[in-house]
Amino acid sequence: MRQRPFRIRTRGNLPSELSGFVGRGGELARLGRLLDSARLVTVTGVGGVGKSRLALAAARAAAGGTPDGSGEGSGWGSQERYFDGVWLAELSSVRDPALLEFTLAEALGLTDHTTRPPRTVLAEHLAGRRLLLVVDGFEQLVEETAELLAELLRRSPGLRVLAAGRRTLGVEGEQVFPLAPLEPAGALELLVGRAAAADPAFAVTEANRPLLIELCARLDGIPLALELAAGRLRALSPAQVLARLEDRFALLTGGARGAAPRHRALRTAIGWSHELCAPAERLLWARLSVFAGQFDLDAAEYVCAGPDLPVDSVLDVVGELLAQSLLVREETPAGVRYRMLETVRLYGAGWLESQGDATRLRRRHRDWYMGLATWCELDWFSPRQQEVAALVEAELPNLRLALECCLDEPEELHLGQYLAGTLWFYWAGCGRLTEGRHWLDRTLEPVPGDGQDEYEGSRLKALWVLGYVAALQGDAVASMSALHECRDGAQRTGNRVAAAYAVHRMGCLALVSDDMARAGELLGSALDLYREAGELNSNVLMCQVELAMAMAFRGELAGAATLCEEVREICEDRGELWTKAYALYVLAYAALDAGDTASARRLLTECVTVNHAFRDLVGLVLAVELLALVTVSEGRPSEAAVLQGAAEPMWGGVGLRLFGSGYFNAPRLMCQERAGEALGPERYAAHAAEGRQLSVDALVLRARWVPGREGGPRTGKPAAPRRGRRVDTSL
User: Fold this and answer.
1) Is 157 found in the same domain as 90?
2) Dihedral angle at the C-alpha atoms of 34, 40, 46, 51, nearest 10 degrees?
3) What's the average model confidence in pLDDT over 332-339?
4) Residues forming beta bridges with residue 7, ordered by sequence position
C-alpha cells in the first residue's frame, strides 16, 4: 500500500492583517480576476512596493473573507475552488535549495517521518486537492522555486499558485501582474494613516497638506518608503523631513546606472532613513541582519552587543528601530519577537559586509543558537517541555542558519554535529524526523583529511541520534550502521554516555523489529549503563518504557506496569509529558488485558492529547490503534472501525506501518477481526472509510469522547462525511 503523509486539517495559515489595507482597491480587483483565469500568477515589482501585502489581501479574499482578514465579507473568491484552503509559504529566509521543499511542506502543515524525498511527499499531498498556495520571497532561489512549482502544478490540477517577488518565475503559463507604486491619492492616504497610527496627535492641516503631497511625490509612492517617512513624522515636521531628504538626496540615490527611477527611489528612502539613524541605531540595524525571520531581545543582546554597543543599551535602540518602522514587533506562542522587513534587512546586511564584520557576527549568531539548543535540550526534561517545543518551532529558521554556518567550514563540522544531535528532542518528539535526518546526514558526511578525534563526542551524539531517527523511520539498515559506529567509537574513547545511548537505540530497533528477547537484553543493559553514568532524562525514561513494552509483548504485564508506573511518577514529579504519554500507552495495554476498559480509555485519552500537542505522530497513531481495540471491547464496533480507518493514513506519514511489527500490529488485527465479525464486511468498510475522512483535529476530539457522555463523538453523534469531502492525508 502506498505510504501517504498526514496533515492536520485546517483551512489555511494566512496571517491576520494588523493594519489597514489602503490605496490598492483597483489592483486587488484586477488581481482577483486574473487569479480566476490563471493557475500561476506572479506579482512583481521593486522591493517595498507592496507585493506581499497585495498578494495576501488577494489570498484572504480568495479564502472567502475580506482583504483585511476580518472574514466578514463573502469575498470575490470561490471557496469551492479552494476547498482545501489557502496557504502561505514564506521563502525569504531560505538560502539552501535543499530546504525549499521542507519549507513548503512546513507551510502546508505536513509532517512526514518516512524516507521519501520531500518533493514526493508534496506531490502526493497536493494530488487531487484544490487549494491556493501563496509563495513569497523566492528571489534568492528563483530557479529552484520555478522548477518545483512547475512540477507541482503539472502533477496537481487543483493547485493554483500566487507568487510575489521582484522578478518573474519564467514558468510556462505564468501570468505576470506588475505592481506599480501607489497613485498620489493612495500614497497620501497611506502616509497620513501610518503617521496618525504612530502619533495620535498628527493631523493633516491646510499648512502641511501641500508638504505631505510633495513628500509622497518625492518618494515615488513606494509604500515602504512612505511607511519609513511616517515613522519619522513622529519627531519631525513634514517640512523638516523634506529638508533632510533634500540634503541627502544626491548622496543616497545609490542605484545602478540606468536602473528604473523607482529602484533608486527605494534606495534613497532606505538610505535616507539609515542616515537619519543615530550611530548606535545604524550599528544595530546592520548587526540584526544576521538573523533569519524572527528573533527575541535576548538573542539580539547577545549577538549584537559589544564595546561599541553596550548590552544595556540594546533594548533602547531596538525601541528606536521599532518607532522608525525598521523593525516589526510580533506576538507569538514563544513570546514577543521582532522581525526585520526583508528589504531593510538586506540593506543592513550590505552595510555589515562593508564593515568587514559579517563573519564574526554570523559566528556569534551560531554560538547563541547552539547555546539555545543546549538549554532547550535540558529544559525538555522539565515542566517547560511544551514551551521548549514552541520556542524551537519559532527559532527553526535561525537554527537552520546556525547549522549552515557550522557546515561552511570543515574545521567547525563538529559544531554542526553537536547542534544536529542536541536537537534530537525536536526531530523525534515534535514530528520533524525527515528534516532531522537531513541535517544529521549532512553533518556526518565524510570530509577529506578530517581529523576530529578531540571532538569525537559530538560525532558520537550525532550518530546515535541518526540511529534513533532512522529506526523511527523504519530504515533499519541506516539505523544499525550508525549505532554500531557509535558504539564502537564510544568503546574506543571510553565514552560511557554515548555507549549507553548506542545500546539503548539498538534495543529500540530490536523492539520494532519484533526481537523481544534481544530488545529486553539491550534495553536492560542500557539502563544499567545510564545509571553508572549518572544519566537521567527523557531518553533514559523512554528506555525504561521501551523495556516495559518488550515485557508486555512477551506477556509479562505486571512487570511492565510496574516499570511504567515508576516512569509516570518521575515524569509527574519533573513535569515531563512526552515520555509519560508512552508510559500511559503501556499502562493502557496492561489495563485492557486485565479487562479494565474504563482505565484503558482514560489513559489513552491523555496519551492522545499529549502526543497531539507535540505533533508526535508515532505516539499518536499507536494510541489510536489501541484505543480502537478498547472501543470494540466496550461493545462499539462501529466507532472502533472509524478509529481504525483514521489511523490508516497516519501510518503513511510515520513510515512503515506499525514498523512491520507483528507485536505492534496485534491490537489492530484483533480489533479488525472483532469489529468485522460484529458489523460484517460492508458496514465495517463503510465506517473505516468514514474514519479515513477525519482530520487529526477531528480524530483527537473524537478519541477524547467518553462513552455515556451526552451526545456522541466529535460535536454530537457520529455523522457521515460531508459530501465531496476527501481523505485528509498529509504529514
Assistant:
1) yes
2) 70
3) 88
4) 110
